[in-house]
Specification:
By secondary structure, the protein is of the alpha+beta class. It has helices at residues 61-66, 117-125, 154-159, 161-173, 186-194, 261-271, 273-279, 327-344, 391-406; strands spanning 47-50, 57-60, 92-98, 101-106, 111-116, 150-153, 176-180, 208-210, 226-229, 241-249, 256-260, 283-290, 293-300, 302-304, 310-313, 351-353, 360-364, 368-372, 382-389. The longest helix has 18 residues, at 327-344. The two termini are 27 Å apart. Mean pLDDT is 89; it is low at 1-37.
Length: 407
């Protein structure tokens, strides 16, 4: 690991940076500063206050040592510093501001850290989390949302980084996008999905086909109406981004139903906060059983991110197992769940449209709730082919493309 001091030291045998065996205790340096001209900063017992453009901000010594840019290998871009190897923790001898950086010399090591003030400012002003280009605000939509869905052509996405980035951004912000001019082939869906990341296999394999089948193992493979749901809550980690490529749709009926579940959940928070709290607090069981599989998992109906905002939801009555919460809790939980399920179906939230052959609807399976109206089985053909990509892959693709566009 590169350091500012003793560059000729022998490389450690365990892949981590060497430290001395006799570090001075942090308490010995508490509330004093070691003179470094007129620029030295007072050192506290566990950290120090750093003057930043936004005002003074406190930083913990462990965090500062671990955040040192030299802890990351420039080739692998992985951490090569073992903070646990410091028996008494990181122990600074002095700290000062040098231009646009905080400089710290560590008395337990032959190392000097130089941390950009911009990095410290980012953490100080964003509630302790690093700024993330893919952490875009979610844009809520309602029953009239279909007209505003991002629309992109298949060929443009797979040949243009600009369009691929627009595709990824729409899925992060709106949770949904409509792709047109898809080839009538299995390969077209795979190419579209892989423009965002590797296809995520499930119990159904890498891809699945939604059409009428004899002895169906899923209600989607019938002509019946399909209630609003999110896919595969029976999986420990339910699939992320879902792709449904319409290969044919000439039947009578069968309109697609889509709802921004996050928008409905936020509305529930405003209108019935007690219901929201219950659904965002307790996990309930889901299952998927047929002769070849027996999947079970517990999920929370309303999912919250670190800031407390709704990041998604899990809804699937046809895969919901017998709820195993205490009966006294169910006195309030079941009515709250039923009210939320009814709210999802309200006309103010549901957008209805007909998918045409050659279109692919792509959406965030943790945020967008989808369903289908019943159709007449012998009135034509209806064939959708689907697959999934991880949401982490979606955000990774967006960050990578954005960085490339700015290079």
């Amino acid at each position: 690991m590169p350091t500012d001091a003793n560059p000729t030291d022998a490389a450690p045998t365990d892949g981590f940076s060497p430290v001395r065996d006799d570090p001075a205790p942090i308490s010995a340096l508490a509330t004093r500063s070691v003179t470094h001209g007129d620029r030295s900063l007072p050192l506290g017992e566990h950290g120090l206050d750093v003057p930043l453009p936004s005002g003074p901000a406190y930083f913990n010594f462990h965090w500062l040592r671990d955040a040192c840019p030299a802890t990351i290998d420039p080739v692998t871009r992985e951490r090569v510093f073992d903070i646990a190897a410091l028996p008494s923790g990181p122990c600074p001898s002095t700290a000062w501001i040098d231009g646009e950086a905080l400089v710290i010399e560590w008395c337990a090591e032959d190392h000097r850290s130089r941390l950009p003030l911009a990095l410290l400012e980012a953490f100080a002003t964003d509630a302790g989390r690093v700024l993330d280009a893919a952490a875009l605000p979610r844009r809520a939509w309602f029953a009239d949302g279909y007209a505003a869905f991002a629309r992109l052509a298949f060929h443009d996405i797979v040949t243009s980084d600009v369009e691929r980035m627009r595709f990824a951004r729409a899925l992060i912000e709106d949770g949904i996008a409509l792709v047109s001019s898809m080839d009538d082939s299995d390969d077209a869906l795979t190419r579209l999905a892989e423009s965002l990341g590797p296809v995520t296999p499930t119990v159904d394999g890498s891809c699945f086909d939604v059409r009428l089948t004899i002895d169906p193992v899923n209600l989607a493979y019938t002509a019946r109406a399909l209630e609003l749901h999110t896919d595969l809550p029976n999986e420990e980690a339910a699939p992320g981004v879902q792709f449904l490529h319409c290969r044919a749709n000439t039947v009578a009926g069968g309109r697609s139903l889509f709802v921004d579940g996050a928008a409905v959940a936020e509305t529930l928070r405003e209108e019935r906060p007690e219901d929201f709290h219950l659904l965002a607090t307790y996990d309930i069981p889901f299952f998927r059983r047929h002769p070849a599989a027996d999947y079970r998992a517990h999920q929370r109906v309303i999912e919250l991110d670190r800031s407390g905002s709704v990041s998604g939801l899990t809804v699937s009555q046809h895969l919901q197992d017998t709820i195993d919460l205490p009966q006294a809790v169910l006195d309030d939980y079941y009515p709250a769940l039923c009210r939320f399920l009814r709210m999802l179906r309200e006309d103010r939230f549901v957008t209805r449209f007909r998918l045409s052959g050659g279109e692919c609807i792509v959406f965030d399976n943790h945020r967008i709730v989808h369903g289908r109206e019943a159709f007449v089985a012998d009135s034509g053909q209806r064939h959708l082919r689907g697959c999934y990509v991880d949401r982490g892959a979606l955000r990774s693709t967006y960050r990578t493309l954005l960085k490339r566009s700015r290079a």
